Amino acid sequence: MVEPTTPPVIKKIKFSPSSKKVKAGKKLKLSKYLKITKNRKGSVAFKYEFTKKKYKKYASLTKKGVLKTKKKGRKKTIYVRVRALDGSKKTAKIKIKIR
Is the pTM of this model over 0.70? Predict the structure, then answer.
């Protein structure tokens, strides 16, 4: 007999607003802008990552979703993706302009 599988916790995730401006050398807490829609009760971990490796030159990103921009990144645009680690394969992306 096959046991029914439980659906993933996350139904939908997105950033609101989808783009943000930050001064070089400042911090931005990305989890503050993450909007989550759930299928059921439960908690979920998220993984924050840059969409391209070269963005590490312009900013650093913690596991908790805090982005710290570097002076070198001034006048650059970077993209950060967040993935839900509950098996739902849901992702969201935010555009960051460094001023």
Answer: yes
